[in-house]
Amino acid sequence: MALTAVRLLDDEALERSSVVANNAMNRERGLDGVNSYARDLGLHPLDRLRPRLAEHGAAAWLDLCCGQGRALVEAAGQAPDGLEIVGVDLVGHFDQRAYALNGGLTLVTASIAQWQPDRAFDLITCVHGLHYVGDKLGVLARALTWLSPGGTFAAHLDLASIRLADGAPAARLVRRLLREAGVAYDARRRIVTRTGPTVLDLPLEYAGADDQAGPNYTGQPAVDSYYRPLRTGTRPDPVPVPRRSVVVDDQGVRVGHGTWTFEADWDELSSAALSRIVFTPADVDHLELDIDVTWGEFTTVSSDADGFTEAVAEFARRWGRPAPDLTTLDPADGHIVVWQRPDE
Ligand SMILES: C[S@@+](CC[C@H](N)C(=O)[O-])C[C@H]1O[C@@H](n2cnc3c(N)ncnc32)[C@H](O)[C@@H]1O
């Protein structure tokens, strides 16, 4: 898809779009239960905040794109004294119970594209909010600077909705850039997480948003975000990291990285897939092997890891297929499965 085929919107036009200001979206998640923050984030906000409260007597939670603020109202009703909660949403239709609370909860009507807090937070969440934001990576970068030391960040982010200015998908590139910047991405839950504040300086410049991208994985129409590759020439030399190693044998797979190891037996492995990633502005050009396990986690091994070629060959041999030619792999080939559980 060429950029000329897509009409990119600025923030003002986007925030007036029926895709963003629409009543059909789920703005009513509670704190826990079926339709809830605890369930969709895979973490209970109060469980994250209680140790802070116990230690410091105070803690703060910021929820971006808070919708009606139901989860926040429920948390404020249950939380011990000392918990400060702030919710921000473009639409000021908040849960009426918020107005009966006696302090502790502030609900702000503003766009998170511009809003700026005046304090740090121990927990920052954004539950299915970035799907409707133009500069998703810019909001992410700003919000990561608002964390207190040791604070938790968790936000839904659909990497499939991030594209380069020529329309090319940028999911794998962004996933890699985030990982290199110390920001974790859970591809199954589509959640970006981080502990402690950081400056996220990605070589990408926001170009605009497409509100006609159609439904995303939630089934609701969402917004695609476009970025131009940016070469500043000021990126510092990378700090040498311990080399990874990967071994595939009768037991399963073992990945080592310094003192960190990832181990999975054959009955725990789900699939292994190979891809080539090229992004010239960030000097990225290598092969990656994504190894998925049955309980939903994955690990990625780059082609500079010791044993990479042998591991790919061993996966393919055990799957009964020829190993792909690593020298001719093209980024456009996407994910090439080299092994898959027989029942998948
Ligand atoms: C799917 S709802 C989720 C609401 C809430 N987090 C929940 O789970 O119940 C997405 C929310 O993002 C808000 N939103 C969209 N763009 C925004 C922006 N630029 N700034 C602040 N809120 C925004 C919408 O108004 C909507 O309430």
TrEMBL record:
The keyword Transferase applies. InterPro entries: SAM-dependent_MTases_sf (IPR029063). Pfam families: Methyltransf_23. One of its GO terms (biological process) is methylation. SUPFAM superfamilies: S-adenosyl-L-methionine-dependent methyltransferases. Keywords: Methyltransferase, Transferase. One of its GO terms (molecular function) is methyltransferase activity. It comes from the Bacteria. This is Class I SAM-dependent methyltransferase. It comes from Catellatospora aurea.
